[in-house]
Specification:
mainly alpha; 23 helices; about 55% helix
């Protein structure tokens, strides 16, 4: 028997008939078109530019060698910080995909699609899939950014995967929306006005509803910035519900675009139903505000932090922190020990309690100041560390050692400020820079307000001059004089002129009422 008898006859379409492709070839065609459109998107100057800016800016923030608070990240804030940067790329992709879908109409070649085997709805699907490489790139950048911060020795807290997927989902949503807009309004220049109009409507709705929680969370990105980092269990953001909402919305918009392009399949109807359900469940889950239990937990951590903190003994002092920050007590102890080593009298051996404090009662967008503690020997430290927070904490420690308590230190701005400021800044790596960093106007001359974790002090121009002169002297020489004259240097009756005489530095100008110990803070 010849081999020809085993060959299956090929079906040849009759004249005028169109060959029916197999399901596998249809999928391959959609994927091939999606790959082509993805390359075309990358060749669009706005898309390429904003992609380069996004990747470049993220890399610069990670590799620029900046120190300060970036060296001590709270991961429950880092995950949210990855969401805003992809927005510009999302806008560029929205416009780019919209133009790509309308390319054939602009070039008057859309009529040629009638002779092709691929249906219009499959081309619509391919345009939506062309965004996936950019979604993947965004996911890689977000993942690398978070991992880089998480591997830092000073990192604390826990990130949320639901927060991390928001950036890539925003890219996907923008691409799908661009496709849908092209099918709804097949006009070439509609995308940029749509972006402006959407922004204007968002602002108006937010203003008319006074920033209601459920309205705010209908937007793609909710930053909730303002307050210092909260413990992870006090963040209370409906991140998982929001991610479900974004996924459902993206799929629903894609189903609408495919439907407008002629897609009429049972699978499309089933996917649309699931997408509607997911979107609705996501909206329902993210709409309620903070629960009563969360508000109670935040109030407890704010008013009675000792009930939820762990305390560690280091040397003569006790350091109490929220559990996620317990490993940072060694850094706080280093600052306290250095200051106490240069203090005189009983302050050099005084038992200090350093307590971490936050005010979480006003939510993640609140920026309430922390009231000074009236408990003697108690120093407040916040949840941020590094950069200016270190000398500010040093000011708080020195204030308690000199005045007895934070509340007492904040009530006066007499000559004891000189002693406080020298103790705080001379123990830093760069004393003059630290002096500039803790002053509200970033100056090293004239009068100014000095920042600390619970408020601040007031420095007169004369006190600033004395402190600056002291920092120019060898610290061991000044430390010996501070210890020898500790009682007089910490007395509210001692004038700034007398402080300068005791420490052996010149004083510029004449004394003011504040310098004489009257407690007047006129600057």
């Amino acid at each position: 028997m010849s081999a020809a008898t085993h060959t299956r006859p090929r079906t040849v379409p009759a004249d005028g008939e169109r060959a029916v492709p197999s399901p596998r070839s249809r999928v391959a065609a959609v994927i091939a078109l999606a790959r082509f459109e993805a390359r075309e998107l990358l060749l669009q100057i706005p898309v390429l530019l904003f992609l380069a800016v996004y990747v470049g800016y993220t890399g610069w923030t990670l590799f620029s060698g900046r120190e300060g608070m970036d060296a001590f990240p709270a991961l429950q804030d880092v995950d949210r910080s990855t969401q805003a940067a992809p927005l510009l790329l999302a806008i560029a992709l929205f416009v780019g995909v919209n133009r790509a879908v309308l390319r054939a109409r602009r070039q008057s070649t859309d009529r040629h699609f009638d002779v092709l085997v691929m249906e219009p709805w499959r081309r619509t699907l391919a345009h939506a899939l062309s965004v996936l490489p950019f979604v993947a790139i965004t996911a890689l950048v977000v993942g690398f950014e978070f991992t880089w911060m998480a591997l830092k020795p000073g990192a604390v807290g826990h990130g949320s995967p639901a927060e991390l997927v928001v950036g890539p989902l925003v890219i996907l949503l923008a691409g799908v929306l661009g496709v849908l807009l092209a099918r709804l309004v097949p006009v070439g220049f509609v995308a940029p006005p749509f972006v402006i109009g959407a922004y204007a409507v968002t602002v108006l709705v937010s203003a008319s509803t006074q920033g209601a929680h459920w309205v705010t969370w209908l937007g793609p990105v909710v930053s909730d910035a303002g307050a210092d980092p909260f413990p992870s269990d006090l963040v209370g953001r409906p991140a998982a519900w929001h991610a479900l909402y974004l996924i459902g919305l993206a799929v629903l918009l894609l189903c609408l675009a495919v439907l407008l392009s002629g897609g009429r399949t049972r699978l499309l109807a089933a996917v649309a139903v699931v997408a509607v359900a997911a979107t609705g469940v996501g909206v329902a889950g993210q709409s309620p505000g903070d629960s009563a239990s969360l508000a109670a937990a935040r109030a407890k951590a704010s008013v009675t932090p000792q009930k939820v903190q762990v305390c560690i003994e280091r040397g003569r002092s006790t350091y109490c922190a929220f559990p996620e920050w317990a490993g940072r007590t060694a850094d706080w102890a280093g600052v306290v020990d250095r200051i106490q080593s240069r203090a005189g009298g009983s302050a050099g051996g005084e038992r200090v309690t350093v307590r971490q404090r936050i005010d979480a009662r006003y939510g993640l967008q609140g920026d309430a100041a922390i009231d000074p503690s009236s408990t003697p020997g108690t120093v407040t430290v916040g949840t941020r560390w590094g950069g200016n927070r270190v000398p500010e904490f040093a000011v708080g420690v020195a204030s308690v050692l000199v005045a007895g308590s934070e509340e007492s230190a904040g009530e006066r701005c007499d000559a004891r400020v000189v002693t406080i400021m020298w103790l705080a800044t001379s123990t830093q790596r760069d004393p003059m820079k630290s002096l500039r960093d803790v002053r509200l106007d970033d100056s090293t001359s004239g009068s100014a307000v000095v920042l600390s974790p619970t408020g601040g002090l007031s420095m007169t121009a004369q006190q600033t001059t004395v402190v600056r002169e002291l920092l120019a002297e060898p610290h061991y020489s000044v430390a010996a004089k501070v210890k020898a004259h500790w009682t007089e240097l910490t007395s509210p009756k001692t004038s700034t002129t007398r402080v300068a005489e005791l420490l052996g530095v010149p004083v510029g100008g004449k004394g003011t009422a504040a310098d004489s110990g009257s407690g007047s803070c006129d600057m």
